[in-house]
Amino acid sequence: MTLKRHYFQSLSALAFWASLLGTGVTFAPAAHAELKLCNSTSSKIGVAIGYKDNKEGWTSEGWWNVDSQTCALLIQDKLRARFYYVYAFDYDKGGEWGGSIPMCTNVGEFTIRGIDNCEGRGFKKSSFFEVDTQEQADWTVKLTEDPAPAAPPPSAQSGSPSQVNPTEATASTGTRKK
After folding, report:
1. What does the pLDDT look like over 34-77, one tens digit per residue?
2. How far apart are CA 125 and CA 93, in angstroms?
3. What is the pLDDT of residues 113-134, one digit of tens each?
4. How far apart are the first and last CA of the chain?
5. What are the backbone angles phi and psi of residue 65, rounded to the nearest 5°?
6. pTM of the predicted protein model
7. Could you say which DSSP state residue 120 is in?
8. Domain spans of the chain?
9. Which residues pair with 128 in a beta bridge?
């Protein structure tokens, strides 16, 4: 075998192994981000979310129907904001999970831009509670039937509504009001 031929075979082998290594990197699982809501109650619930999109302004979306003891993926994408807002109601026993942040909802499936003049635009005004995702990539909101402990005082943040429900390192917990 000539030196030239050996050189090209070595380059071919090197290129083959490099392509295999490159393939492994290419098909590695992509980092994901998501906002998930878990229903820890004995009832089926309806869930709506709200958020401020830098391009579109305020938006509310719904409804996700979440069976008892299951979770629903509300956002499977990069979270658009640090703060999200949640409103939910209990189909079976009545009651709701809400707070003091007014946003628009509708009877059927909806995406509503803007939070002003809900009734005047033919929507219902509902009171959402705030969820601080602390800028994490993944966040889970857990809705329960049991009373949650009192929320700590909110940290002062410019331009954001006050904290309504307590947050933990990985989840926010909402408690049903009757």
Report:
1. 899 999 999 999 999 999 977 779 999 999 999 999 999 999 88
2. 21
3. 999 999 999 999 999 999 999 8
4. 86
5. -95, 120
6. 0.67
7. G
8. 1-30, 34-175
9. 101
